[in-house]
Amino acid sequence: MKAVITGGGTGGHIYPALSIADKLKKENWEIEYIGCKDSLEEEILKNTDYPFHQVKVLALPRKLNLKLFKSIFISIQAIIKSYKLFKEIKPDIVFGTGGYVTGPVLIAAKLRKVPAVIHEQNIYPGVANKILSFFVDKIAVNNIEATRYFSNISKNKIVETGNPIREEIIKTKRAEGIKKLDLNHKYKTLFLMGGSLGSRTINKAFLESLKDIMQFNKLQVILITGRDNYQEVKSQVNQIMNEDCNRLRIIPYLDNIEWAYAAADIIICRAGATGLAEITARGIPSILIPFPYSAEGHQRVNARFMEKKKAAVMVKDSDFNGETLYNSVKEILFDQDRLKEMKKNSQSLAKLNAVENIVEIIESQVREESS
């Protein structure tokens, strides 16, 4: 059997796609990947042995202007190229996780009469997946609450699966994470990150609170700045601290994110669906700062759900600064009862069989087509 996997733009789309690819590969499937040219997915796929095919796609502007017509024209070209690629690859199924590239690839699959499955990671689905829901055969969703946002025509295609995450996220032990990051196993660990591209809001708030945060006894910190922000943040940290601090790890990007998750007692981050799936898989209490410009405000919906379940505290991006960071950490990290309750609530939201659930949908769809 052969599958085409597509999804890109951010790690939140790419890593779930790869987790499905890896599982299918273990079951002797052939895998080929379609993504954007000069993209994050192309960079990440270089570290795998999956054949990578480039198509060019631009984001669709939300306003009527010349960029919109250019984007539509390029998307049509991407559909044509994907259509031709399917003739060469001859896939049994196409699976997409989102990102601009997914639309043209899945529409081409429909035109080729190749079965297709999409995965919606957020409670509030994006416009692209709402449109694609009419073209695909099955819609895997992280949370069944997403059903109410899809058309009635598409609702019979929906299956709740959870969000796929890599095995390493679940299996890595705390001791390994502490060792790999050269941390102290006797200290509590605060982990901050802003997603695969970093977050200026989180970085700025951390810098504002740095002196006060590092005064907490037996606390160590991991901060993933994002590659573009690293030099600036590192320089400011050096100015504030005036000395090296062995309790502080400033990292531009971490391929082995499972080490940081395993070491963390609490995390401050955005509210992307993949990140939240990884956090709940580890049962980490969280302080969530939804990205204010996420499509259709889906990160705010994700964060509110986590807060409602008492697994997280949500802070608006505009309200998040050094003072709120410091107070939030102080109120949660050193309140053992609250920390324990949030950890338990976070673990209760985990869907650890998401990869298996999605692979079963893919395999059953292929069986149905061939019968």
The helix fraction, in percent, is 40-55%
Count every helix, treating DSSP H or I runs of 4 or more residues as helices: 15
CATH architecture of the largest domain: 3-Layer(aba) Sandwich
Helix/strand/pairing category: alpha/beta
Any idea of the CATH topology of the largest domain? Rossmann fold
Whole-number radius of gyration?
21 Å
H/E element order: EHEHEHEHEHEEHHEHEHEHEHEHEHHH
CATH class of the largest domain: Alpha Beta
If you average the pLDDT, what whole number results?
92
Q: Give the spatial strand order of the biggest sheet.
A: 3-2-1-4-5-6-7
Describe the structure.
This protein is 46% helix and 16% strand. The mean pLDDT is 92. The chain is built from 15 helices and 13 strands. It is globular and about 65 Å long. The strands form 2 sheets. A 7-stranded parallel sheet has the order 3-2-1-4-5-6-7, with helices on both faces. The two termini are 15 Å apart. It has helices at 11-26, 40-45, 66-89, 102-111, 127-132, 167-171, 174-180, 200-213, 230-241, 257-263, 273-282, 298-308, 322-333, 336-348, 354-370, and strands spanning 2-6, 30-36, 52-55, 93-96, 116-120, 138-141, 158-160, 188-193, 219-224, 248-251, 266-269, 286-288, 312-314. The protein is α/β, with parallel strands linked by helices.
